[in-house]
Amino acid sequence: MKAIYKFLIHILITSLVLVPFSLNAAMISTDKVFKTEQSVENKNKVLEFFNRSDVAAKFESMGVSPQMAKERVNAMTQAEVNQVAKNIDSLPAAGDLTITTIGWIGIVLAVGLIAWLFNK
Asked: Nearest-5° angle of CA 20, CA 23, CA 29?
């Protein structure tokens, strides 16, 4: 019985010496988890944007197939994907009039009306 214990002790000591201590445990910060989730959401947002039929038609009119566009998105770095996702959120939809645009149109019309009234 002692021979079995000696044999097991030698195996355990040998395995502890030969096996590298590369495993470690550390706390993961909330910021790191949030950035990872945000990165996945941004990539999905960009891919969903490229799946829209109007976007796909526009790319096809420029000679880029939807599959090629998706491959290019997959080849982008995470910083590029985040920038595109940010731009998707900040750009107005086609035909969307913002308050600023309506304000400028109003100012131009008012100046034109005043100029027309004084030249009459």
From this structure: 155
Rg (CA), the chain: 31
Residue 52 identity: R
Estimate the crossing angle of helix 30-51 against helix 53-61, to 10 degrees. 70
Q: Which residues of the chain have pLDDT under 50?
A: none
Closest CA to 81 of 31, 34, 42: 42
Name the residue with tokens 């308050």: 99
DSSP summary character for residue 23: -
Question: Rounded CA gap, 118 and 87, in Å?
Answer: 44
Q: Read off the pLDDT of residues 11-28 as tens digits, 9 standing for 90 and up.
A: 888 877 777 666 667 787
- Picking from 58, 20, 17, 114, the residue whose alpha carbon sits closest to that of residue 9 is 17
